[in-house]
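Entry 14. Structure prediction run on the chain below.
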Amino acid sequence: MLEDIIKERRKKLDNLIGAGINPYPEKTKKNFSNKKISDNFEQLLDKNIVIAGRVRSLRSMGAITFLNIDDESGRIQALLKKEHIGEEQYQLFVENLDIGDFIQAEGILFLTKTKEKTLNIDSLNILTKSLLPIPTEYYGLKDKEALLRKRYLDLIINSEMRELFRKKNIFWQTIRNFLMERDFLEVDTPVLETAAAGADAKPFITHHNVLDCDFYLRISLELPLKKLLVGGYEKVFEIGKVFRNEGIDAEHLQDYLMMEFYWAYADMESGMKLTKELFKKIIFSVSGGYETEYDNNKIKWDGEWEVVDYFDSFKKETGIDLSQNINMNELKKKADELNLKYEPSYGKGRMIDLIYKKTVRPKLIQPCFLTGHPVEVSPLAKKDPNNQKKVLRFQIIAAGSELANGFSELNDPIDQRARFEEQSKLRQAGDEEAQMMDDDFIEALEYGMPPAVGVGISERLFSFIMNRSIRETVIFPLMRKK
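Output returned:
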């Protein structure tokens, strides 16, 4: 029983303390990682080696004990001999060491008869006495929810998960380096906002005690970054957390990392070209090639990407021509045919988007640019001068997933105010995801913002490359309180 194991470990802890050993010392003498030892074994044979890590196995055979010791870089075998450290010390450690303990071992390297690289221990110290057993060694831990809740156990058990989060670091560093090499300035903008705008999402609300005022956790990075274009910067980006009080599924979380960049004097076409270059750089850096798999689809990122017109594809899949003056009844009828759930508060844009996600998006498998979105679903994008029902917007879609969003930024303050007012009416009618009026942003636009393109990419792209749900690719995803 687990209770018996814990009781036994606490007894061993007391034994160590009783023997004058501090089971939680503050210093170590570690001078080599396990990987460095493995990679440079021949050159290190005559060196004094000090390793430190977690004990992953113990095999006692009378006067000798073999241990496998893990550190972040890998695993190495060590040999503890009674004749090297003395009978009293040997018995103390053999009887009171457990799998999961952290130790420091000092000695000389040698090859066993089976040619295994091994450290011959001359001295051993306890660094941390573990009081709970590692799950797989005793009672198993196969529940995915439990692994997400206790990610540290997942990382101990599964080395591939540690590798996954190293790749995630590569993902964000690739984005950061790519933009900085092109003279984009990285900035940091506030998480707390007086208005939740920049995206369609229900915000989280918090209260500032000193100011005695409610604030919203940001749902987007967009509006503060565009204010920086007003202020004179021409290329800015931010990588930061955004918060959306919405459902959980394979592609959505309540809090996640987002990158947005804004590029003054550039247009949508320039944004598409740069974003494709960035995608290819990311894909290769993370996966080592230009082909990935997602949901049983082979995704090929090299080569030309199709440009798909929103209106044309919508008409093809639904029979509805968005270039005409369609009404809500027509959209609701189509939604009913598709067995889609919608709220009475939904406006035309929300209904179009709902139908699009059911009919058009799942058909887009290979990477493509979806362009020419309806004005109703794009309150922050500039209108297409050739068709006032469309905006200059693009999304990168693959395997039915939206992986990037960009558009020529609306910099007409009068038009922007009118769009926000339409969103405000939807909020008043009960649409909690409609955008709020942001008077501070409108005022900034009134001082003048240069024409610009903006693009947003979230960590959904990383989970897509890894062919995992987004919760699996977050180190500590938000979970229901037990």
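The CA atoms of residues 155 and 162 lie 6 Å apart.
Filed with the rest of this week's runs.
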